[in-house]
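Problem statement: downstream parser choked on a complex file, so we are re-checking the raw output for the tetrahydrodeoxyuridine run. The parser issue turned out to be on our end (a line-ending mismatch), but while we're here, posting the original submission so the record is complete.
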Amino acid sequence: MTDIEKKSGAPADLVAAAQAAQKNAYAPYSNFHVGTALRTEKGAIIPGCNVENAAYPEGVCAEAGAISAMVLSGERKFSEIVVVGMGDMACTPCGGCRQKIREFTGPDALIHIVTEDGRHLFTLTREELLPHSFGPENLK
Ligand code: THU
């Protein structure tokens, strides 16, 4: 599969899981509901949604929730992730989530950005999402 083919769409199973997760988002402060689903190295699909609270900065992004659930399940690596935001604008991972994604992916992992109604906007590699990143190797 070429890079262009790899980037031509978002996997339907992850899109469906992210859309379902978005329905459970708890975002009464921003009213911005996000759903995500990642595929682990072993092939498991793990969803996440954003969870806010009254102390606004303590809210947790959808991606962070899915990554925590993946680690809890015993896995440490994922190959791709779908992020679904609201409306037609791309919901790309925030800076903190880019670093969290960085920790548990290889540079070729795919980040698919999809609208809430399932339209694929674009796909980035992890390296494109967070170029020249600092990671575990820097501490060896
Ligand atoms: N949010 C996510 O969960 N993921 C993203 O990729 C971008 C933003 C959440 C954080 C907050 O609960 C709400 O969206 C508005 O920023």
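For whoever reads this later: The longest helix spans residues 12-22.
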